[in-house]
């Protein structure tokens, strides 16, 4: 087993809260990965992502209508960008 495979196995063990041998047995004999003990993304993260997606869709619709964007909407868009950047950092650092 090379270092990359070992790291992947360690992550699977962490996510599933199983030993390395249990993870390997699950993969070999059951032909599936073990279930994660905790969700990779918390419920609040999904809620925030959905809100951001909705807002981005509204901005895109407005942009495509060729109407000028009010300054308060631009401020809201900036806040959305900051939230999205924070979520990306959290997701990247979580794994």
How would you characterize this protein structure?
This protein is an all-alpha fold and 95 residues long. It folds into two domains: 1-38, no CATH class; 43-94. It is built from four helices and no strands. α1 (3-16) packs across α2 and α3 (43-64) packs antiparallel against α4. Residues 48-85 form the Bacterial mobilisation domain. This is Mobilization protein MobC. It comes from Algoriphagus ratkowskyi.
Q: What's the short story on this structure?
A:
74% of the residues lie in helices and 0% in strands. By secondary structure, it is an all-alpha fold. α1 (3-16) packs across α2 and α3 (43-64) packs antiparallel against α4 (71-94).
Largest sheet: none
What is the β-strand count? 0
The ordered H/E elements are HHHH
**Gyration radius, to the nearest Å?**
20 Å
Number of domains: 2
How many DSSP helices? Answer: 4
Low-confidence parts, pLDDT < 50 over ≥5 residues?
A: none
Assess the beta-strand content as a share of residues. under 5%
Q: Helix/strand-derived class?
A: mainly alpha
The geometry reads as elongated
Q: What is the CA–CA distance across the termini? A: 21 Å
Classify the helix fraction into a percent range.
over 70%
Mean pLDDT: 80
């Amino acid at each position: 087993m090379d270092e990359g495979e070992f790291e992947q196995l360690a992550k699977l063990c962490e996510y599933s809260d199983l030993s390395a041998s249990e993870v390997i047995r699950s993969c070999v004999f059951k032909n599936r990965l073990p279930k994660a003990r905790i969700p990779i993304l918390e419920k609040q993260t999904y809620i925030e992502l959905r809100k951001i997606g909705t807002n981005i869709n509204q901005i895109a619709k407005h942009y495509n209508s060729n109407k000028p964007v009010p300054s308060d909407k631009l401020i809201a868009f900036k806040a959305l960008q900051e939230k999205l950047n924070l979520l990306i950092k959290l997701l990247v650092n979580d794994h």
